[in-house]
Amino acid sequence: MATLELRNVHKTYGAGLPDTLKDIQLAIKDGEFLILVGPSGCGKSTLMNCIAGLESISGGAILIDDEDVSGMSPKDRDIAMVFQSYALYPTMNVRDNIAFGLKIRKMSQTAIDEEVARVAKLLQIEHLLGRKPGQLSGGQQQRVAMGRALARRPKIYLFDEPLSNLDAKLRVEMRTEIKLMHQRLKTTTVYVTHDQIEAMTLGDKVAVMKDGIIQQFGTPQQIYNDPANLFVASFIGSPPMNFIPVRLMKQDGRVLALLDSGQARCELPLGVAADELEGREIILGVRPEQISLGAAEGNGMPAIRAEVQVTEPTGPDLLVFVTLNQTKVCCRLAPDVACRVGDSLNLQFDPARVLLFDAGSGERLDLAASGTAIKDNVTRFKGR
Amino acid sequence: MTSPVDKPALNLSRIAIHAVLLLAVLLYLVPLVVMLLTSFKTPEDIGSGNLLSWPAAFTGIGWAKAWATVNGYFLNSILITVPAVLISTAIGALNGYVLSMWRFRGSQLFFGLLLFGCFLPFQTVLLPASFTLGKLGLASTTSGLVLVHVVYGLAFTTLFFRNYYVSIPEALVKAARLDGAGFFTIFGRIILPMSTPIIMVCLIWQFTQIWNDFLFGVVFSSGDSQPITVALNNLVNTSTGAKEYNVDMAAAMIAGLPTLLVYVIAGKYFVRGLTAGAVKG
Amino acid sequence: MTTATARLRASPLDALQRWLPKLVLAPSMFIVLVGFYGYILWTFVLSFTTSTFLPTYKWAGLAQYARLFDNDRWWVASKNLLLFGGLFIGITLAIGVFLAVLLDQRIRREGFIRTIYLYPMALSMIVTGTAWKWLLNPGMGLDKLLRDWGWEGFRLDWLIDPDRVVYCLVIAAVWQASGFIMAMFLAGLRGVDQSIIRAAQLDGASLPRIYWTVVLPSLRPVFFSSLMILAHIAIKSFDLVAAMTAGGPGYSSDLPAMFMYSFTFSRGQMGMGSASAILMLGAILAIIVPYLYSELRGKRHD
């Protein structure tokens, strides 16, 4: 049980080479589940290796329970890790795999036996103890890998994309199981994944990374509802957020975004001061579920008629694709909506929930109401 | 999926293929058969018959005489080969372990430099090596030959293990480090138990290389410290006295038997070593 | 790599652990730097001195190389190498490929046949040389056998014929190495995607044609590594000559490796011997450097 804090962690593989990790700042409380998520090559696995001590950092500090462990070797950090490839020792049976770390730490044989039994029971792998890893299925190997981590009762668990080698069904099962396990054991956990669903479902805190930089750090809800930039907004959510380039119009001191579906136009009022957006190219971000079917006569909310081009029924939802401002836009509608390709739908937007991004920098633009809150999220840990 | 009409022609060509392969088998076997037949003949028998004529009577005198001549050198070869094989394999395993799992700045460069040793024509190092052995007091000793074989075997043994170990996932070492294991513990408890196939390949490769070596033997040894290959060559190429071909052939068989035996028993690893050493070397 | 802000608490044991990989590799690094490159340099230096029976470090410039090029025996050895190398490589490759293709036709007892083809590779060149010296013995070897079998006019005295003795070396060397090349190509053939062959069969190509135009061209890498290994064997060939002919009759079957040995160690011509060794190194470099270069470049394209 421990807190984990990263202070200005920096990593480069040599002078002149681009930084692998840049100024990483984050902190989690005892028992929290931290997700590091991002596309491959974003530095999330490197960061995890640095936390584990398998790679050294070039600058900054890593603190576990407020103690600087940056210079410590992995074995002294009291950390256990579950690897993507499981990394089970192929010549040892399951029992010895789980017991290996305990033996190295010179635990007594009876204590080892007890611990192995406890872990095996917890993970329901008692019947596998005598087998070699090569005789296990992928899911079983995954359990053993977790068992090996659990047996040591470390301060922190690290999971490096533990589910990515499993088939889709098993992945969902194991995801729930990991969550259950964490609720039961309440051990501080860092979990690396490139899967945004795992990130949303498992994490207490999520750090979205790209190019060695944390793009945003916050709760899953913050990440989803208040993404800090275009990258975070596009990475989290499935189907992804729609990004519609818009032209802005000033009218009576208000700013209006123009939408054009080819057969109709609509002016979406934005709650921002006009001069703030002067001369900038703007991208409108709308999640598919925030587009709804408007009543024919209108209810005061801006709406636009658009032609249905493709429909994708997923079961619980009906995804409808239309074109707005020459951009394909996905709308998530109720499955019982009757519509066919070629039909025209009256689509409604909630101006309070659309997001604005600067097309050049990709940064989220502060809407007067919610903007300050986002800034807070991003900078929360810089002050410490 | 051949049509019925094709069948007879196809069978004919298959018979031809088998015939050619079988003929080749016989041709490859001829030298061995000739050596064996000759070694069991008497000199008179050799004079009157031909290569493939059956011995008038099988006699062991050729073998007895050959063994009496070369047994000391046979022992030398064992004294040279066994330690040299074991030491060079052990060092190669450790080198390969470092070069694959514990890379550091410069280790790749070192590997490149070492690889060149697989191609090194030993003629370019013979003189300095003999000066060095002289300085070390190891000239004309079996220990000297052990040293030389270890040094110039390293390139291949390291290559074998390094290429084998790079295919082992690095996560295994990471996991063991987090479990608290150190450099040698990881090697001994995790990596080495996985290495049986490559250890076999390396042992067999080194055994055949060192047992069959002639160049180092003839340059770095003399008289009592000579390995069997040198002794065989001396025996066969002496120009004094009447040639006793039965003794020559028996001695050649004695020199060749250990490696032949290894090949027959562990041919799988022998071939793998040849192709691994060759293709990647 | 140092951690800028970390308060290092590493124990001496940890520090040792960090240095262990380098410590373990250090002896080998020493061996490679001294025993490989240092010694090559040393030989290189010797080739520019007047050394005879003992090394002396009196500068002779290129005199040893000049003497070498004036030496008729060196030229014989070099020409022999070209002849021997060319024939040995060509015939070995041809036989090896041929047998590999035949063996690839789902032959029963393939394992056994393969074992027979490959066993000569387990033998020392000295044993091979001894055996073939006997087989090619004029008057008692194959010479007599074929006459006994009824081929009255048969004569095989190449071993004592200065113009043909190199062919004897070729025969023995081909016997020893062709099985190995067969094994390499067979392994290569097993790696060829069977669907390519199926596709070509559907196109109506005959089996020999498929092998010649589709399968074998895809084995180019195997071909090149075989070529390189065989060239390497040819240049280093010393034991075979020593056992079969000792360079004779006269020095008509000399090879550079043999030349180097006898001038350096028997005739006390250390300087010239070193010069010949350096030229051998040059020949090997001329073969492997382009090979390695193309290998590495090919890998980068992957």
TrEMBL record, chain A:
Organism ancestry: Bacteria, Pseudomonadati, Pseudomonadota, Gammaproteobacteria, Pseudomonadales
Gene Ontology molecular function: ABC-type transporter activity; ATP binding; ATP hydrolysis activity
PROSITE patterns named among the record's database cross-references: ABC_TRANSPORTER_1, ABC_TRANSPORTER_2
Protein name per Swiss-Prot or TrEMBL: Glucose ABC transporter ATP-binding protein
Superkingdom of the organism of origin: Bacteria
Pfam families, A to Z: ABC_tran (PF00005), OB_MalK (PF17912), TOBE (PF03459)
Claim: Signal is one of the keywords in the record: no
Xref: Gene3D superfamilies: 2.40.50.100, Nucleic acid-binding proteins, P-loop containing nucleotide triphosphate hydrolases
Record organism: Pseudomonas soli
Domain ABC transporter: 4-236
Matching SUPFAM superfamilies: MOP-like (SSF50331), P-loop containing nucleoside triphosphate hydrolases (SSF52540)
NCBIfam families for the chain: PRK11650.1
Keyword terms, alphabetized: ATP-binding, Nucleotide-binding, Transport
InterPro entries: AAA+_ATPase (IPR003593), ABC_transporter-like_ATP-bd (IPR003439), ABC_transporter-like_CS (IPR017871), ABC_transpr_MalK-like (IPR015855), ABC_transpr_MalK/UgpC-like (IPR047641), Mo/tungstate-bd_C_term_dom (IPR008995), NA-bd_OB-fold (IPR012340), OB_MalK-like (IPR040582)
Biological processes, Gene Ontology terms: carbohydrate transport
Gene Ontology CC, one term: ATP-binding cassette (ABC) transporter complex, substrate-binding subunit-containing
UniProtKB/TrEMBL annotation, chain B:
Family stated for the protein in its record: Belongs to the binding-protein-dependent transport system permease family.
Keywords assigned: Membrane, Transmembrane, Transmembrane helix, Transport
Membrane spanning stretches: 15-37, 49-68, 74-97, 109-131, 143-165, 186-207, 249-271
Record's subcellular location: Cell membrane
GO biological process, one term: transmembrane transport
UniProt topology in membrane: Multi-pass membrane protein
Domain of life: Bacteria
Name of the protein: Carbohydrate ABC transporter permease
GO cellular component: plasma membrane
Domain ABC transmembrane type-1: 74-266
InterPro entries recorded: MetI-like, MetI-like_sf
TrEMBL record, chain C:
Domain of life where this protein originates: Bacteria
InterPro entries for the chain: ABC_transporter_permease, MetI-like, MetI-like_sf
A biological-process GO annotation: transmembrane transport
UniProt keyword Magnesium, yes or no: no
Compartments in which it is found: Cell membrane
GO cellular component term, pick one: plasma membrane
Primary residence: membrane
Family matches, as Pfam families: BPD_transp_1 (PF00528)
TM region(s), chain numbering: 23-45, 81-103, 115-135, 164-189, 210-235, 270-293
Family of this protein: Belongs to the binding-protein-dependent transport system permease family.
PANTHER family attached to this UniProt entry: ABC TRANSPORTER PERMEASE PROTEIN (PTHR30193)
Protein name, entry field: Glucose ABC transporter membrane protein
Organism: Pseudomonas soli
Lineage of origin: Bacteria, Pseudomonadati, Pseudomonadota, Gammaproteobacteria, Pseudomonadales
